[in-house]
Amino acid sequence: MGRHGWDSGARRWRFTALIGVGMAALALVLTMCTAWPGDDGRGDSAGTSTDGAKVHGTPPPLPDKPKPELGWGFTHTQFSADAGDAGARARAEKVLAAQPLPQIQHLMGWGSNNPEPSPGRYQFGEMDSRIDLIRRTGGTPVVTLCCAPDWMKGGKPGAANTNWSKQALETAPNAAHYADFAKLAGVVARRYPDVKHFIVWNEFKGFFNDSARRWDYEGYTKLYNLVYAELKSVSKDILVGGPYLVMDSLEPRATEDASAVKGPWGSLDQRSLDAFTYWNKNKTGADFAVVDGSSYTKDDELLPSDFGATDKFTAVSRWVRQQTGGKLPLWWAEYYVEPGDAEDERDGWSEPRRTAVQAAGMIALVRGGTGTAFYWNPQNEGAKCAGCLWKPTQLANGGAGLSMLKLISRFAKEFPPGTRYDDKVPVAADDVPNVRVLADEKTVLVVNTLDRPIKAQVDGQNFDMNPYEVRWLTRAG
Q: Which of 18-32, 240-254, 267-281, 366-380 has the lowest mean pLDDT?
């Protein structure tokens, strides 16, 4: 499951573990200095409160009803623009506000602390900070309800006892605590009444049945249905989706676990299809369907090429839309086109290549019927930040938007939800193998898939393209 983007390998969790150690030390000091109400001697109540459901801040006014399709956005990870140099943060916020995008924040991890360290005791400080950032930049907030506090999965309660290891974070709540997790989801919905879109869990983490060698889709669906009911009890206007399932693929010659959904890029893992099918049949309800995945295989093969592999996104999207009868809008919570290295770093490509293949991936998602997709932002603190959306705000000269943000922002502006696409854009015959094209009545997006300059003829226009260039054309009339 290394490709799900927990950050660059172990680095995120090393950092987060240090935060946990710091919190433990602080809790110990506080315990030695004073007795907190309800404290049992372990620092359980330090930094927590019982008013988790109290509305945070000043939620912005909302339109009449939330829409189930949001278009193109991104996910906040460990580092974001709510921390760092003040000037850099202001620049990043200005860039984000120029083209407001939907933005995902997770409940626990990826920049959020343990929301309920002990039953009924809450700490939302870091999540408050992220929601505030989304509000200031005019984005549409989305909350992914993952992960679960330690006491819901067999760990110790208490703010000082949070286990920030990757293994612990990837553990699902025990079945006996599904209702407690659903209740926590309701607390979050009441705290942030402007959040009207919720995704239940992340990539079936902790829901794999090792003995049966398949996903525990029964357990996940029970959790999902409880969360769905709780959120709808808070407000009928809240929109809920799942199952946020990884659509893994195998190389074309593989037979074990291979499905009939296949192409030059490989074949989908039948176990993922089985899990989606069960959820789709047994869910209480859903306002949108959510999946994620990479264009490359489980063995990190880009087949038949980096650009050709993106056709997988089209095939997966069409399969999901077919399963739901076209009734549920389709979301991709994550999508990857560049394999990670041993540390899950994705920095082996040049930025032009990375941007071009991302653009091709977005085109492939659209062609499959995807209406909402989120780029997993690999933001870090250093000057080197491959694929990042903005220059890290921890740098005094940070905050400027980078090429990936420019691509996503322009894509979101030109192709919003409900766009009617033109499938008959004329392309010169010798250009067809070399370019990827997407158009509506006003705009044409052209991507050069080659690492060399070309002369292109698209939509009646002749122009030169640089290697891996992403070109936007305005249509006549």
A: 18-32
Secondary structure (H, E, C), the chain: CHHHCCCCCCHHHHHHHHHHHHHHHHHHHHHHHCCCCCCCCCCCCCCCECCCCCCCCCCCCCCCCCCCCCEEEEECCCCCCCCCCHHHHHHHHHHHHHCCCEEEEECCECCECCCCCECCEECCHHHHHHHHHHHHCCCEEEEEECCCCHHHCCCCCCHHHCCCCHHHHCCCCCHHHHHHHHHHHHHHHHHCCCCCEEEECCCCCCCEECCCCEECHHHHHHHHHHHHHHHHHHCCCCEEEEEEEECCEECCCCCCCEEEEEECCEEEEHHHHHHHHHHHHHCCCCCEEEEEEECCCCCCCCCCCCCHHHHHHHHHHHHHHHHCCCCCCEEEEEEECCCCCCCCCCCCCCHHHHHHHHHHHHHHHHHHCEEEEEEECCCCCCCCCCCCCECCCCCCCCCCECHHHHHHHHHHHHCCCCCCCCCCCCECCCCCCCEEEEECCCEEEEEECCCCCEEEEECCEEEEECCCCEEEEECCC
Which residue in the block uniquely carries the two structure tokens 């060698």? 213
- Region 220-234: mean pLDDT is 98
Looking at residue 122, the DSSP 8-state letter turns out to be B
18-32, 100-114, 264-278, 338-352: range with lowest mean pLDDT: 18-32
Determine the Cα angle at 232 with ends 227 and 235, to 5°. 135
Contact 97, 91 (CB under 8 A): no
For residue 223, the model assigns a pLDDT of: 99
